[in-house]
Amino acid sequence: MATTSDIRKGLCIRFNNDIYKIIEFLHVKPGKGPAFVRTKLRSVSTGRILENTFSAGHKLEDVRVETRSYQFLYPEGDTYHFMNTDDYNQITLPESSLDAPKLLKEGEVVTVLFNTEDSMPLSVDMPASVILEVTYTEPGVKGNTATNATKPATVETGATVNVPLFINEGDKIKIDTEKGAYMERVKA
């Protein structure tokens, strides 16, 4: 059993007859009244997002998880194929178990969380950032780079990211997988 003080990002808990992964949390200590924790939970079975508030000291049933490294092979409809980097076994996971499927490039190594009770895969943790090549973007206008303006750019996985005006087609950029936002241009 865990309590609200044990809440952290990525913790898997059993709640409302389902397993949820905590994706955001905020401890609140108001000046008047008891403390509480606001959480944003994602169901590992359906991918549905749920917001819930737990009072301070509330008991939570945590799910013991095991992490393993898997390499992303290819998408097929709504399922994604992964290969274990140790024993080369392959698994398929639904798109709902991935945090940012549009930023997943073939060959990328991710961490898959498994329930230790029944060895079922729960969710996929992406690396903190990925480096992708820009395949399409409008050219920047000369002299318009002094402002903090951005433009949409399509990367090699098909995702669209807002980038600064100086980014051109063929540039490699670093993208924050949690927010899906541009971080920096990467020199080749």
Please tell me about this protein's structure:
This protein has strands at 2-3, 12-15, 18-28, 36-43, 49-55, 59-62, 65-76, 79-84, 90-94, 109-115, 121-125, 129-137, 150-155, 160-164, 172-176, 181-186. The protein has 188 residues and is an all-beta fold. It has 3 domains: 2-62, Roll (SH3 type barrels); 65-125, Beta Barrel (OB fold (Dihydrolipoamide Acetyltransferase, E2P)); 130-186, Nucleic acid-binding proteins (OB fold (Dihydrolipoamide Acetyltransferase, E2P)). A hairpin with a 2-residue loop joins strand 7 (65-76) and strand 8. The protein starts with a strand and ends with a strand. The mean pLDDT is 88. This is Elongation factor P. InterPro entries: Elong-fact-P_C, NA-bd_OB-fold, Rib_uL2_dom2, Transl_elong_fac_P/YeiP, Transl_elong_KOW-like, Transl_elong_P/YeiP_cen, Transl_elong_P/YeiP_CS, Transl_elongation_fac_P. Pathway: Protein biosynthesis; polypeptide chain elongation. Keywords: Cytoplasm, Elongation factor, Protein biosynthesis.
